[in-house]
TrEMBL record:
UniProt superkingdom: Bacteria
Name the UniProt record assigns to this protein: LacI family transcriptional regulator
Classification via InterPro entries: HTH_LacI, LacI/GalR-like_sensor, Lambda_DNA-bd_dom_sf, Peripla_BP_I
GO molecular function annotations of the record: DNA-binding transcription factor activity; transcription cis-regulatory region binding
Keyword field: DNA-binding, Transcription, Transcription regulation
Pfam family, one: Peripla_BP_3
Xref: PROSITE patterns: HTH_LACI_1, HTH_LACI_2
Tagged with keyword Acetylation: no
Taxonomic source organism: Thermus caliditerrae
Domain HTH lacI-type positions: 2-56
Keyword check for Lipid metabolism: no
Amino acid sequence: MASIRDVAKRAGVSIATVSYVLNGSRKVSPELREAVLRAVEEMGYIPNAVAKSLREQRTRTLGIVVPDIGNPFFSALIQAFEACAREQGYRVIVASSEEDGSLEEDALLNLTGRQVEGIALVPTQDLHNPPSKQVPLVVLDRLSRSLDVDAVGVENEASAYLATRFLLEQGHRRILVPASDLRLTNIQERIQGYLRALEERGLKADPSLLVECGRGPLEGVRRRIAEAIQRLQPTAVFPITNRLTLATLRAIRELGLRVPQDLSVIGFDDFEWSHLLDPPLTVVAQPVEALGREACRILLQRVLGLSGQGVYQVRLPCTLEVRGSVGPPRRGA
């Protein structure tokens, strides 16, 4: 493998000049710069970024752990986080916990062992202890009630309240709410928003309309929702995650029901496929890019020692994107 000395020899310049060109630390004439870059390309030289980082006692690397990389919400979150980190000269190591607490723990230990400078985490459950007191941590999406830690999430309660109120204004009273895991803080907050909207209208919540579907395979979730629709005969469904939204739409299609003539639907998260449905899907839109970027910004502030002693607790607003999937309840319902 070529070394920096080999590159300098090929280009006919000093080792210092090669370093200046590669690091951009000092101006070099266009002719010398071109000679160095040509030698780098011809010899396949790769600067030893790890060695450079070790000399500076910095790895310029962040870690992010999410429950499911295949979930479009989490993949969009990673993309935004990584873009922000890249703009600041940082790389990102991505890990998936697969909604498994032991895998999450392994991922966190692996990241700290690889000397990442900070970690962003969407936890599988409420955190009680930080993974490492030496590594800055920011919690995303599923915020902790037990741990005083930097956190970035959305206004879950307010967003679910808006969606439920909109359904109530259209005349719906039997609103089915599929939920994933009632132990998760973001799910609890969304349910509180649903309940608040009912209470505001003087309506008593029917506990049977709140259906916990778990975090298992999508087919099992679909079956659970289809059974609830058949048994409970709701006029509207408000699945409170994007994964539950997909399962709900599949269940409705397989039951031979029409949206919104037979059943109104408000989904969670706004992705490209939401616009392509017929009718287009009314959704609660989370600001995914802003979430990822804000988490990265806060984490880098901690890493670079630019933040104070206080804990950041950021909540970003969601919007209700009204399209064609909500109508009045069917007659006789």
